[in-house]
Design a protein that fits this description.
Distance between the termini: 55 Å
Number of helices: 3
Order of helices and strands: EHEEHEEEH
Oligomer: single chain
Largest sheet: 4 strands, antiparallel
Radius of gyration: 19 Å
CATH superfamily: RRM (RNA recognition motif) domain
Strand order of the largest sheet: 2-3-1-6
Number of domains: 1
CATH class: Alpha Beta
Shape: globular
CATH architecture: 2-Layer Sandwich
């Protein structure tokens, strides 16, 4: 079972998470999510357990617990969904002509 772990301190390492969650079962993998442009942690990641029961116990034990001065958010990870391209800020583009905005008479 794969768990979402949020509200992490930005200096958290994968080894820190493996140690924290390893106390509750066998951790199969750990992955921290970093910003593509800066390489800085986004403050969340994923921990995968080999055993679902151990994962559920880890959720019960760690959700809301203090870790580095922050209350952890721990729950079962949801499947990744398709999201719209955010490079344009998610705003509708109309006819696709950037200059059409300037051409309007207000």
């Amino acid at each position: 079972m794969k768990l979402y772990v949020g509200n992490l301190p930005y200096n958290t390492s994968e080894d820190d998470l493996k140690e924290l969650f390893g106390a509750h079962g066998t951790v199969a993998s750990v992955s921290l999510i970093n910003d593509r442009e800066t390489g800085r942690s986004k403050g969340f990641g994923f921990v995968e357990f080999e055993n679902d029961e151990e994962a559920k116990k880890a959720i019960e034990a760690l959700h809301g617990q203090d870790f580095g001065g922050r209350a952890l958010v721990v729950n079962e990870a949801r499947p990744k969904t398709d999201r719209p391209d955010r490079r344009d800020g998610g705003a509708p583009r109309g006819d696709g002509d950037f200059n059409s905005f300037r051409k309007r008479s207000w």
